[in-house]
Design brief:
The chain has 289 residues and is α+β, with helices and mostly antiparallel strands. It contains eight helices and nine strands. It has four domains: 62 residues, no CATH class; 107 residues, Band 7 domain (Tetrahydropterin Synthase, Chain A), CATH 3.30.479; 68 residues; 42 residues. Helix content is 55%, strand content 21%.
């Protein structure tokens, strides 16, 4: 009898332990716990820790709370000038409303990624379709990503999803026409550069012509001033000479100096002999007048 009671007690304890264990819910920091009752979500546990549920009646599902990365498949998009480009991108997203996520997407990450793929692709197609190929190539980083996110807006709120970021890994031309497009763009840039160079050369020539004209005028004025100064100097020189030799004594001395200079100039070569007639002005230096 005691043995039967002991076995019954053990069974009761084991049943209590099983019931207690099945009623405990442990929620981690990076997840939501969805408590379901008869298949429907009864409530959501959003804070980390231990909580409880009704055993055998309620069940637990979990959803990630941390940021998720979804790599979209490469797709073709067409610009406003009817040029095809290949877009390869990814998004960062997270679940903000686990109850809405469970109700609309059946708690499926795969379903969420499918919605993201469709929504982001449509937004990318709409934005790029209103932009020329050259504009996409020249400014595809921040501006394009911001335009695509703005175009999506709050569309994903209905699924309890928040789109955190959109980034393009590659936004390029198809290989069959990439070279032709780049050659055309290079040619256009060369034409623009040639125009700027020609305009610069023309402006430089104008500046050179103006400078040359100014220099010519300055040189002409300087030469005129120099000639005036030379003429004034020569006039002053003649005036001084006239004053210096205005009396007879000075005139005789001047004639004496000029005669010596003439004698000196006539004595050239190795032969220093000079033959003079008695009436020569030079001879008068030695004979006296």
């Amino acid at each position: 009898m005691k043995t039967v009671k002991r076995i019954a007690l053990i069974v009761i304890l084991l049943a209590a332990l099983c019931i207690g264990a099945s009623s405990i819910v442990v929620t981690n920091e990076d997840e939501y716990s969805l408590i379901r009752q008869f298949g429907k979500v009864d409530h959501v546990v959003e804070t980390a820790g231990v909580s409880f549920k009704i055993p055998f009646i309620q069940s637990v599902d979990t959803l990630p709370k941390n940021i998720q990365l979804y790599d979209l498949s490469s797709s073709d998009v067409i610009t406003s000038d009817k040029k095809t480009m290949i877009c390869d991108s990814y998004v960062l997203w997270r679940i903000t409303d686990p109850l809405k996520f469970a109700q609309t997407l059946n708690s499926s990450i795969a379903n969420a990624e499918s919605r993201l793929n469709t929504t982001v692709y449509n937004s990318t197609k709409n934005v790029i379709s209103s932009t020329t190929q050259e504009e996409v190539i020249s400014g595809r980083d921040g501006e394009l990503a911001a335009a695509i996110v703005a175009n999506i807006g709050n569309t994903l709120d209905q699924y309890g999803i928040e789109l955190l970021a959109f980034e393009t890994k590659q936004l390029d031309l198809p290989s069959d026409n990439k070279a032709a497009v780049y050659e055309r763009m290079i040619s256009e840039r060369d034409n623009i550069a040639a125009t700027y160079t020609a305009e610069g050369s023309s402006e430089a020539q104008k500046i050179r012509n103006t400078t040359d004209k100014e220099v010519t005028v300055m040189i002409s004025e300087a030469q005129k001033d120099a000639e005036i100064l030379i003429a004034e100097g020569e006039a002053e020189y003649m005036r001084i000479l006239s004053e210096a030799y205005s009396d007879g004594a000075k005139q005789d001395f001047y004639a004496f100096v000029r005669s010596l200079d003439a004698l000196k100039n006539s004595m050239t070569g190795s032969d220093k002999t000079v033959i003079l007639s008695p009436d020569s002005p030079i001879a008068q230096i030695f004979y006296g007048k």
